[in-house]
Structure to design on (1426 residues):
């Protein structure tokens, strides 16, 4: 067991790496005073949101910790320890979000400044920012889980009986991570979309000023939203998946017999794979470098695929050295090579789902083109086409998932399914670095616009952003695939902990659970969309109010719309400069923050309380039905909504860039473009709020069930 | 067993009743020559579609019958008999659609004519038309099932062993009914929406002429669509549910032991309940009568609720006289009163789901009002609100369904679930009469418009149509609820026939089946929506072509749009009259027919082949997972799509009638109205094509599995 300190050591290395890279980012040039000022506003807004969010969540965390303690009061000293795990998990998740966002808001305008001179430097800054996020997430995950495991296994011992207690207590860590993740995703998703819709609808459509224009009072809130939604939200999301897949496979590993006896190595292996993933991710970050004039896409691919290849090799050696050649789970014999195959199946499945995602949502693909065509006959046909594409896009990923489940189970039983999820998530460090790089480049572009830098800067940041699309799609595929597999692993772990042998669909209690569970993602999505609608409405009113009540803004808007900028005289220019400082960005930031915090509570509580209610009132088997239902429709609705939203978005972008359909060139400003904007607006809450939240919903409900498993067994 | 002839006798009475009422309809006045001409065009178009559809389906029926025969070749003489049942079921379903539609197309213009003098007479004609449909459906169902059961039970015997063969062979009847129903619903749904969208988009929006205008080449096709979609499609749908719930409960009845031995009465009871439902329905039709100046809504309610009350009493006495006081199913003891309670639970659940449907889709309710409000900020927010309402509307129906499943099972086991479905469907005769009355009144209004009758006629038919809304919503609730319960009953029957004890979700094969099954309704919906899109596109092009290429139409359109009708001189009027005969309605009817037939094939084959493929390749348990998945998401997607579509529709209607929101009066022609039209157009394929098709999909897949059960057991 002493080598467990290697695991904790890897976690510490990740944190040191993050610290080193943060220091490097801090040293980069922030650019002009105006850029500094904008960057500071965004950073302040983002921190204000996080503070407000964490204030509410800390009450929630304390309340749940107390409840957990009471509920487990009969179970020796595990009551206080499960609360401890929960609190540590919640803090680690919050910290990961905080660190990631802190450095992202710093990297934003430093990327902008770098883009003033070269694409390569800008890529370097943006990716470094992302890598801090990535390594913080895996570092905190491994540190927390490894540390708690060392402490608990010393405390309880790790014989076959006590390891079950250790693993139950440690699952509180996963619960803490999941709860924070859900609120972060939902709250961040509401924030970012409310600000986005408000900025677009009043600024772009009603007042006729371009995106990210400094006169628009909602621009800062919009950019803050990108940080809290896309960066902090995603970080918490992947932290949860990562931790969930490790915990799920540890629990399942404990149910394995090798040569007739319990073998702790099956429980330890997931921790070591995660630890090795940290080293591989760090190596991967060094592979991402591009020389001036080089291809940034190639650089990212090198990092992503290169590290995947090393990861496979690392997993192979770890399995060979940790596991006995054969073992028995659930009465069936498997081999250690089977575990390896299961892991590789997980990796391939994630890749496959990612490529399909790219096919259904990428610029120029046939499904997106079909939406472009249907935009010619107006918004209604655009919407129908988008909904159709989203629904259709569920087919192949689900087939891949089903095949993956069967394959992984064939090779290594339930443990294999958990290892497949872990295989997808092992190099989360670099994955997340690539993912977080996207919103950083996006924000850098926004700052370039607001600071009125030359157009070439915006072009460079746009190019950076576009380069990340394929890798982002693959990342999305991994997120969805791993969410499904992690949920299944946790589900299997739940069964092991409750000691139920089967969850029989022909039992009407299970069928009823299946129906109600299947319904929850629909209810949850409708809540999320309603919340975005209400929050956006409040934002729209505030922006309208400012344009109406602040005379300087009104005058500057009239000037912009009525007089070409080249014809401005000195008075005009002075008036315009004067107006630039007058928009009350802070008010908009405040409105987004308050709406998001208020609106995230109800869906969050629904997710957490429903498995508890069903489990205690109807028992473990009905709860099993509920989990299966929520997992199946949750995955389906997540794919449907994310891909429909992505496809609408790119259909709009294709039209904005100009596309030939039936001999007609569609362009910005055409009726088809207006139709495509409607689709994009409908898709926004789909792809950025309700869709990704469902990924967390399914894992959170599984982990809640896992934690309460001993109580309802 | 001789009293089984009472069952067949009740079926015969239903057919005689239908014949009598048809003769009565035939005797009513058809109105002016123009009305006759229009009525004939619609009737011809509808028959042309049915002919074309049945031509394709007859090939399908023969092919499947042959396949069924071959597949069962090893099983004595049941091979030929299962094919026989299948063919009889298919013919009975087709005949029910044919008879219902034939009399509906006759009742259409006779209702219009009646509405020229009074509301009461018009109600009488429309309802009589509907009652022919209703009684034909139940009559053919009971005749077919009763007749085949007498024949097969004489042939095989009805001891505990042979009854299983009898019931397997008879399930072919249900398969025949389901297959035809799916094609009828999908084909009819595509037809009606293609014609509707084509007529609206080019006629109303581009050419600026009112709905149902005789100059619009697509109006006849539009009215034909209402008949083939809403009348024939609905008839086939309910025929399928009705037959499925009877067969499902018969199979489950055969697995019951009373006092330790098999008791045939559990198998016979469903047939007798169905037969008594015919008599109750006929009594119910006599309760629907309204005196001049009376309230038509009250008349319909009397028929619907009065017959439900009698039905409950009839079921009570049948159960008391057929069933022993106690019995055992699946090792658990139940009482005959338990069966009665289960049936009543089914009825109450159906009613509850209906009332919720009304709440989410009715004019003036808060969810619909929320869509109206969100129309103020444009089509995007209208769409988001509608999707949100549709998703949210799944929550309570699913809770009711889950409670119903648990309650019915608590009182009478799996047999109780089947009886709950049968309880909802026992008085299908009168239910369907009330349902079919709606589209007949709707069509009568269309004819009034096309024949240019005074506005008061249209007002009367509109009132008739509106009156049916609540009863229609309740009918929809029964359709969805009974589809879910019937699917579950067939699912349980499938398990009985395959002799599998449990379908364990923790078995990854079952979980994979659950995922793939859950995905099918998404894929199926996307296919249906794509088909409507393509068919509508063809229709739009044809209508545009006619407006462009037929000079008389073009001139008349210009006249209509440029000169007030009161200012027309004689030349104008002559030219207009001349143009009226020039629109090539037949071409549009043909295009709709061909597109619908072509497009219905792929989704239909997907539905039928997927359970066969999964069953033979992966076995019965995986197939069980597939069925559970398709049932859960099928019900959810059906509720979501139907209610979203209904809510969008009524939000548009509320704006058209004028509604005050935030101190502003929204009206026809306003921007909010345009936004609501977008929502309504998106909702059309949702509520009339993909939504209702899913009801059939879930039953069809269950019945396919039931039929192949002995082969994969």
């Amino acid at each position: 067991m002493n080598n467990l300190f290697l695991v904790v050591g890897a976690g510490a290395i990740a944190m040191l790496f993050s610290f080193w890279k943060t220091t490097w980012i801090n040293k980069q040039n922030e650019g002009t005073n105006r850029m500094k000022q904008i960057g500071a506003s965004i950073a302040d807004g983002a921190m204000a949101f996080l503070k407000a969010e964490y204030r509410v969540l800390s009450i929630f965390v304390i309340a749940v910790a107390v409840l957990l303690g009471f509920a487990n009061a009969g179970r020796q000293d595990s009551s206080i320890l499960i609360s401890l795990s929960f609190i540590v998990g919640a803090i680690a998740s919050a910290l990961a979000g905080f660190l990631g966002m802190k450095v992202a808001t710093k990297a934003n305008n430093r990327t902008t400044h770098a883009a003033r001179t070269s694409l390569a430097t800008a890529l370097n800054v943006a990716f470094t920012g992302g890598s801090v996020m990535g390594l913080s997430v895996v570092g905190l995950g491994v540190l927390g889980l490894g540390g708690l495991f060392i402490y608990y296994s010393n405390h309880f011992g790790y014989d076959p009986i006590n390891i079950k207690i250790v693993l139950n207590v440690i699952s509180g860590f996963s619960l803490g991570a999941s709860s924070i993740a859900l609120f972060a995703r939902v709250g961040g998703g509401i924030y970012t979309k409310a600000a986005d819709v408000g900025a677009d609808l009043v600024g772009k459509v009603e007042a006729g000023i371009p995106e990210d224009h400094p006169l628009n009072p909602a621009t800062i809130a919009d950019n803050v939203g990108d940080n809290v939604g896309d960066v902090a939200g995603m970080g918490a999301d992947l932290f949860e998946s990562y931790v969930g897949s490790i915990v799920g496979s540890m629990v399942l590993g404990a149910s394995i017999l090798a040569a007739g006896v319990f073998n702790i190595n099956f429980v330890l292996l997931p921790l070591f794979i995660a630890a090795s993933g940290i080293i591989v991710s760090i190596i991967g970050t060094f592979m991402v470098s591009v020389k001036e004039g080089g291809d940034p896409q190639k650089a990212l691919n090198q990092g992503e695929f290169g590290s995947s290849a090393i990861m496979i090799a690392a997993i192979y050696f770890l399995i060979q050295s940790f596991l006995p050649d054969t073992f028995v789970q659930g009465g069936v014999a498997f081999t250690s090579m089977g575990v390896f195959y299961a892991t590789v199946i997980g990796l391939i499945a994630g890749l496959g789902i990612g490529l399909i995602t790219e096919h259904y949502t990428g610029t120029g693909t046939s499904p997106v083109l079909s939406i472009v065509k249907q935009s010619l006959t107006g918004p209604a046909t655009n919407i129908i086409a988008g909904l159709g594409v989203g629904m259709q896009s569920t087919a192949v990923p689900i087939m891949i998932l089903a095949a993956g489940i069967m394959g992984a189970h064939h090779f290594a039983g339930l443990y294999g399914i958990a290892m497949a999820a872990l295989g997808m998530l092992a190099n989360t460090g670099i994955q997340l670095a690539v993912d977080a790089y996207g919103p950083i480049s996006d924000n850098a572009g926004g700052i370039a616009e607001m600071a009125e830098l030359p157009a070439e800067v915006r072009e460079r940041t746009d190019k950076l952003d576009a380069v990340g699309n394929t890798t982002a799609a693959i990342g999305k595929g991994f997120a969805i695939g791993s969410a499904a597999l992690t949920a299944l692993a946790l589900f299997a772990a739940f069964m092991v902990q409750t000691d139920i042998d089967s969850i029989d669909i022909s039992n009407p209690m299970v069928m009823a659970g299946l129906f109600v569970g299947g319904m929850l993602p629909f209810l949850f999505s409708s809540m999320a969309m309603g919340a975005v609608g209400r929050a956006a409405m409040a934002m729209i009113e505030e922006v309208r109010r400012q344009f109406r009540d602040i005379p300087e803004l009104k005058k500057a808007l009239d000037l912009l719309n009525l007089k070409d900028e080249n014809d401005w005289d000195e008075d005009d220019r002075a008036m315009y400069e004067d107006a630039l400082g007058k928009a009350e960005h802070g008010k908009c930031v405040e409105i987004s923050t308050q709406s998001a915090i208020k609106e995230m509570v109800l869906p969050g509580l629904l997710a957490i309380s429903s498995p508890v209610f069903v489990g205690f009132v109807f028992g473990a088997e009905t709860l099993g039905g509920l989990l299966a239902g929520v997992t199946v429709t949750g995955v389906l609705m997540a794919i449907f909504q994310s891909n429909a939203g992505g496809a609408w978005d790119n259909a709009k972008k294709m039209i904005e860039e100009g596309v030939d359909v039936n001999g007609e060139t569609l362009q910005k400003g055409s009726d088809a473009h207006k139709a495509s904007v409607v689709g994009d607006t409908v898709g926004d809450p789909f792809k950025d709020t309700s869709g990704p939240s469902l990924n967390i919903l399914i894992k959170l409900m599984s982990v809640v069930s896992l934690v309460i498993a001993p109580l309802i067994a």
Q: What stands out?
A: The CA atoms of residues 208 and 561 of chain B lie 7 Å apart.
